[in-house]
Design brief:
Blueprint: E1 2-3, H1 10-17, H2 21-27, E2 29-33, H3 35-43, E3 48-53, H4 55-59, H5 63-72, E4 76-79, H6 82-88, E5 97-102, E6 105-107, E7 118-122, H7 128-140, E8 145-148, H8 158-164, E9 173-175, H9 179-188, E10 192-196, E11 202-203, E12 213-217, H10 226-231, E13 234-237, H11 249-271
Parallel strand pairs: 1-4, 3-4, 6-9, 7-8, 7-12, 8-9, 10-12, 10-13, 11-13
Antiparallel strand pairs: 2-5, 3-5
Length: 302
């Protein structure tokens, strides 16, 4: 472990640059803060090139195991003062560690898809919290990949990374350009594009999601772009109470991914012959023929 005492050290200056998107894109690296996310990166087999740690982490209960795991992956470990870590970190309390990780995001054409995938497409979702939460939700619901289109927030933005809660290392994330590029990619793989819209289209629980489908979620302000709407084979909507504000992008994505996955589970159960739970009353609760429920046995008294 290398000891660094100055905030002007070259390694710290270089890491600090990764707070800016242009340097993340140039170097294809990003910052990861906190023991939980660094642990998630290791479990997801992300490549951690270096990690800045404080004395408190080294001496703490989580330090030994985490540092051992980082050393086994040949990450360079640097012990730095608390004030130096705050220079590198995006949050006020980075839990004693900031790691530099190689990008896990791929260009769209490098994305490998399954035979009948469920994909999530983000179209102009600019808020980093929503982008991160949608990636987290995609992981939770078994989505096979997330595609970020034009005008989306960088998924490696520090706030977006934190909002993924580790999902970034378990769901493939691809970057696309214009909506037309995304549409061509999906069409070439026989994947149906379904767009989310407020107040128009088929109510989501009445829509039969195709086996190979990509669900597009639009901007928080403008919804789907005109090009994405034109490319969509169908539009679906989420029913809401009259007068209620429409759901934000993260909430809408969660509802639609759940519904699409719910339908898959039902179809899978039916195709494998698994019986649905019976709605019939058990025999001992059924009324006997010829008499009303609850009437005692035997002849009625005169």
């Amino acid at each position: 472990m290398r000891l660094i005492t100055s905030v002007q050290n070259r390694a710290i200056r270089e890491a600090r640059k990764l707070k800016q998107g242009k340097f993340r894109q140039q170097q294809r690296r990003f910052l990861l803060e906190g023991t939980r996310l660094v642990g998630a990166a290791l479990r997801g087999n992300a490549r951690v090139s270096e990690a800045f740690v404080t004395q408190a982490l080294v001496e703490g209960p989580q330090g030994a195991e985490l540092l051992s795991a980082l050393e086994s992956r040949r990450a360079e470990l640097m012990l730095i003062p608390d004030e130096a870590l705050r220079e590198v970190a995006d949050t006020e309390n980075p839990q004693g560690i900031v790691a530099v990780v190689e990008s896990v995001v791929v260009p769209l054409m490098d994305l490998k898809t399954r035979h009948t995938p469920l994909l999530l497409v983000l179209d102009g979702v600019a808020d980093p919290g929503n982008v991160g939460t949608l990636i987290r939700t995609a992981w939770s619901q078994g989505t096979h990949a997330v595609i970020l289109g034009q005008n989306c927030c960088d998924p490696l933005n520090p706030k977006a990374v934190r909002a993924t809660m580790g999902g970034l290392f378990h769901v493939p994330v691809a970057i696309s350009g214009a909506a037309e590029e995304t549409a061509r990619f999906l069409k070439s793989r026989d994947i149906t594009l379904v767009g989310s819209a407020t107040g128009e289209g088929v109510v989501c629980d009445r829509f039969n999601f195709p086996k190979a489908v990509a669900i597009a979620i639009g901007s928080e302000v403008r919804g789907l772009s005109p090009a994405m709407r034109d490319a969509a084979a169908a539009l679906v909507t989420i029913p809401e109470q009259r007068g209620a504000e429409s759901l934000n992008a993260a909430a809408a994505g969660a509802v639609l991914l759940y519904e699409a996955m719910r339908q898959r589970r039902v179809n899978r159960a039916q195709s494998t012959g698994r019986a649905r739970p019976s709605t019939k009353r058990p025999p001992h609760e059924r009324p006997q023929k010829g008499r009303a429920t609850g009437q005692p046995k035997g002849r009625p008294k005169s």
